[in-house]
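## retry 2 of 3
previous attempt timed out at serialization; input unchanged, resubmitting
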Amino acid sequence: MAEHTGDTRVMLPQPLELLISQKRFGDIKKSKNTFPVVCSTLASDALALLVYSSYEIELVKNCQFWRRGLSDVYLVETLNELYILRVSHHHWRSQSEIEFELEFLDFLKKQKYSRCIPFKN
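## retry succeeded, writing output
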């Protein structure tokens, strides 16, 4: 749809109903349990419980969202240690890219550069 303004034409956006793809999302009004999400932040307390039950670390006393970027970063504090937890966004990297990064971090550890040591699960 174009609106004529003097000698120039301005393209106006299509009406909203044409921009929403019902094939992609289905009938939003009928979907009461889920809603499509572009970006969300994990609940820190639930994440702390998951980390504690998944890794061999001390009791988590604090888990705090720190930063959003290509991955979300959380500070995880136990009684004696501070950890950085990175949560990658869905489909941001492939499994082989993640495995390569973990191998590289292991290589750095073997070279006595052990600033970032990954937990394996």
